[in-house]
Amino acid sequence: MATGYSCRSQVKLVDNRRLLHPIQVVRSLLSAALPTEQDAIYDI
What we know:
With 44 residues, this protein is mainly α. Helix content is 52%, strand content 0%.
């Protein structure tokens, strides 16, 4: 993880790796934790 664009760009140039921004990490964790529409239970 790296917060700044410059940091991520430098890592990409030097190590040929793509680092995620912390918000991207949080988003993927939330997406994995939240139920999908198919898993949702609806009270009607």
